[in-house]
UniProtKB/TrEMBL annotation:
One of its GO terms (molecular function) is kinase activity. The gene is cmk. Residues 1-10 have a biased composition (Polar residues). It comes from Longivirga aurantiaca. Belongs to the cytidylate kinase family. Type 1 subfamily. PANTHER family: CYTIDYLATE KINASE (PTHR21299:SF2), CYTIDYLATE KINASE/PANTOATE-BETA-ALANINE LIGASE (PTHR21299). It catalyses: dCMP + ATP = dCDP + ADP; CMP + ATP = CDP + ADP. It comes from the Bacteria. This is Cytidylate kinase. It is found in: Cytoplasm. Residues 13-232 form the Cytidylate kinase domain.
Amino acid sequence: MDPRTPSTATAVIAVDGPSGSGKSSVSRGVARELGLRYLDTGAMYRAITWAVLRDGVPASDPAAVASAACSASLEWSTDPDESWIRVDGVDVSRAIREQSVTSAVSAVAAVPEVRALLVDLQRGAVRSALAVEQGIVVEGRDIGAVVLPDADLKVWLVADPGVRAARRAAEDAAAGRAHVTSSESIAADLARRDAADASRAASPTTQAEDAVVVDATHLGLAEVVAAVVGLARERMGA
Ligand SMILES: Nc1ncnc2c1ncn2[C@@H]1O[C@H](COP(=O)(O)OP(=O)(O)O)[C@@H](O)[C@H]1O
Ligand SMILES: Nc1ccn([C@H]2C[C@H](O)[C@@H](COP(=O)(O)OP(=O)(O)O)O2)c(=O)n1
């Protein structure tokens, strides 16, 4: 093997795609299988949104959002077996999945200062992992295109909108989330958020040119994880 070829143990893998395509579950599974760290950047945008709402700041006021975001302190786990995220010492892992946060997160994520802040933190998390010779799977919307353009493998994970909505509805029902209504209203919410995330001026959801497209519409979770692990092994040493 070429000595410059990275091994999967120290690989940096970017997984991007629209809401509900399976990024979190697949990234966690790949990280477990390959012994990598795992970073959920969507959880970071959600945690900042939680802080903005806690402070009573309207998500539609970019200057106030930027100021609330900059004064919040985030801590998170990169252990794929134990995900948590804290804002100012408070564990918000469950609270960030509530509808109030889901409804406001796209507006908060569109504020350039918020993106600059979180992109810095995300790159720092990758540097910290690599400093101790640990690879990492980072999932989000702009990881391969903007945050980590030199990632060893970039995956663009997609699934049909109806399938994404049905999977998210089942997840919400299993978690007992109070806002669950129907997979039709979840489909409308996913479509609204996909459109907002894809059309914003600052770093929209984008497929990196060198990303490999994986379509999870007709694959179970284990099959998608196996496909991404296979791509990583193909590209790097086992
Ligand atoms: N290939 C798949 N087959 C069946 N269910 C899946 C698959 N991928 C993900 N899921 C389920 O769909 C839901 C949404 O997945 P998630 O990983 O949260 O998506 P994302 O991070 O892209 O929003 C979860 O309940 C997850 O377990
Ligand atoms: N790298 C990222 C990750 C998420 N975001 C934004 C876009 C999404 O609407 C929110 C929440 O992301 P999250 O991955 O938790 O969303 P879903 O699990 O797909 O519902 O954050 C982003 O702008 N950039």
